[in-house]
Amino acid sequence: MAKRPASNSANNPTITPGKISAQPRFHQSAREIQQFGTVTSMQPLQLDEPVRLEMTEQLNLLLADTMTLRDLYKKSHWQVSGPTFYQLHLLFDKHYNEQSELVDTIAERIQLLGGISIAMAHDVAETTRIPRPPKGREEVPVQLSRLLDAHQIIIENVRGLAELANKLGDPGTNDLAVSNVLRTNELQVWFVSEHLVNEPLVEASDRGEAVKKSA
Ligand SMILES: [Fe+2]
User: Fold this and answer.
1) Total structural domains in the chain?
2) In whole angstroms, what is the distance from residue 70 CA to residue 73 CA?
3) What is the pLDDT of residues 78-101, one digit of tens each?
4) 119 Cα: distance to centroid of ligand 1 (angstroms)
């Protein structure tokens, strides 16, 4: 008669007979390993702790504003209506994706400086400097104005952050503020604001004058 193979627990003294050690441990909790608003020691970066503390605090404000603008673009993408629906639907989503990339870049700079990025909607809502929009749907000119007002808040603050980063000797944060955040926001402002120029859709406004002159 063939012998049964020896069980794992018989061969391995770390496995208790009758217990499954591969069992996932659910519902775990423990205290935080780093408190929000602190920075770890990051000696290889050669940036003093007070500088990293100031930069991470300012970057978190920028992060909250950028997450809010990102979400405002998605709200606009979903809720847009009217004759320009299709082009704005696409444009809003393009800007949403570009703002999403900025969110990740800003958040990861906070982490690499030894800080903690805000992440959750509640914290973003508490932190952002951009006013809360209504839950309902708004007309296109209002959507566009609201987006431009949000851009203006970010542009004003990011210029200040770039100057501060320069003054404190953190060119990495200065570069992120100017090359990534400022330039992206400036370009998006152009694309959005051109939609608020009151151009006729079908008939030229001075058509009558042009006909008189050619007669
Ligand atoms: Fe979509």
Assistant:
1) 1
2) 5
3) 999 999 999 999 999 999 999 999
4) 23
15-24: average pLDDT: 82
- Band of the pLDDT at 11, cuts 50, 70, 90? low
Tokens encoding 98: 């570009």
User: Is position 96 within any domain?
Assistant: yes
Q: Would you say 17 and 9 are in contact if contact means Cβ atoms under 8 Å apart?
A: yes
Token pair listed for 154: 């970010």
Residue 56: give its domain's CATH number.
1.20.1260.10
| CA of 146 relative to ligand 1 center, distance in Å | 20
Query: Domain span at residue 105?
Result: 45-196
How far does the centroid of ligand 1 lie from the alpha carbon of residue 5, in Å? 57
Domain-located, residue 102? yes
Q: Mean pLDDT across the stretch 176-198?
A: 98
Q: How far is the CA of 78 from the centre of ligand 1 (A)?
A: 7
How much distance in Å is there from the Cα of 207 to the middle of ligand 1?
39
Residue 121 placed within a domain? yes
pTM above 0.85, yes or no: yes
The answer as to whether 182 is a domain residue is: yes
Q: How far apart are CA 175 and CA 205, in angstroms?
A: 45
Q: Give 148 Cα–ligand 1 centroid separation in angstroms.
A: 21
